[in-house]
Write a structure and sequence with these properties.
The structure is a single chain. With 294 residues, this protein is mainly α. Helices cover 62% and strands 5% of the residues. The protein has six helices and four strands, in the order ααββββαααα. Strands 1-2 form a two-stranded antiparallel ribbon. Strands 3-4 form a two-stranded antiparallel ribbon. α5 packs antiparallel against α6. The longest helix is centred in the middle third of the chain and has 115 residues. 12% of the residues are buried.
């Protein structure tokens, strides 16, 4: 109870001695955040401790979130707001406050007088000039785009007619290709039929040629066998049959036949032919002697 009474008494006292204008001069606080610093007490933004407003920016970190030291480097989690009038506002980590380096263009992060000069107006002017140049470049690009769009709109009709013509030509080419393909396939069918016919004709001719050759060889073989049989009958050792003898060729004609037979049947037939000739001569001599005796 005593502590509560003491706390209320302190708050009432501070409400009398702490003017509202003091919050407006708070260092490192944005205009939107200043209402939370108005009044005799301040509560940490994380909802933690509440303290007299005199303990704000006293270079001692009372809040865990560092919200009671927006204008000093006492709190590791604190943040410093640069107003940078004439340029862009900026929020710095509390560690960069009063470190001897001008981080804010208005120099508000350094409390020692003369450390920093307010350069926000110059930086803002340079920034706005660069932004204006970028905007002009964008406008030039948009103008070029509009020009291209207008050219495209005027040329679109011609392109459409050209595309239609090319599509028609393509369809005609496809139809011509299909017709040529059909003609090619028909010609290939005819060619295959002609090739088959030619092949069959050659097969027939070859078969006829083979049959004729076989028939010729058979005839030659039959003639040769007949000649051989005739020579055998004509050259027999005993007296031949008179009818067979009449069919024998004359000696002048028989000798070539015998020579041909000998050439056909080899050396063994030569001996038989010689014996047959001797027998024929002997038979002829006996016949001549009997005729002389009579």
């Amino acid at each position: 109870f005593f502590c509560l009474r003491r706390h209320l008494s302190t708050a009432m006292f501070l409400s009398l001695v702490w003017p509202a204008s003091a919050a407006e001069a708070l260092r490192g606080v944005s205009a939107d955040a200043r209402p939370s610093f108005n009044g005799p007490t301040f509560r940490c933004r994380d909802g933690g401790a509440e303290m007299p407003s005199a303990r704000v920016n006293d270079d001692y970190c009372d809040c865990l979130d560092g919200s009671d030291e927006p204008g000093t480097s006492a709190c590791a989690l604190g943040a410093f707001y640069c107003a940078n009038v004439g340029f862009k506002p900026r929020v710095l980590p509390a560690s960069r406050v009063d470190d001897g380096i001008c981080d804010c263009c208005d120099g508000s992060d350094e409390s020692v007088a003369g450390t920093c000069q307010d350069a926000c107006e110059a930086q803002g002017a340079a920034f706005r000039a660069a932004a204006a140049e970028r905007a002009a470049a964008v406008e030039r690009g948009l103008a070029a785009r509009r020009e291209y769009v207008a050219k495209y709109a005027s040329a679109k009709g011609g392109w459409a007619s050209e595309v239609a013509e090319k599509k028609t030509a393509l369809e005609e080419a496809k139809a011509s290709e299909a017709a040529l393909k059909e003609q090619k396939e028909a010609a290939e069918v005819v060619e295959r039929a002609m090739q088959d016919e030619e092949r069959k004709r050659k097969e027939v001719e070859e078969a006829a040629r083979a049959a004729a050759e076989a028939e010729r060889r058979a005839a030659e073989e039959a003639a040769l066998n007949a000649t051989r049989a005739l020579l055998e009958r004509c050259t027999a050792e005993v007296s031949p049959d008179p009818e067979a003898l009449a069919a024998c060729p004359p000696p002048t004609e028989a000798e070539p036949a015998a020579e041909e037979e000998n050439s056909l049947f080899g050396d063994d037939d030569d001996e038989d032919s010689g014996d047959a000739a001797a027998a024929e001569a002997e038979g002829g001599g006996e016949a001549a002697g009997e005729a002389a005796g009579e």
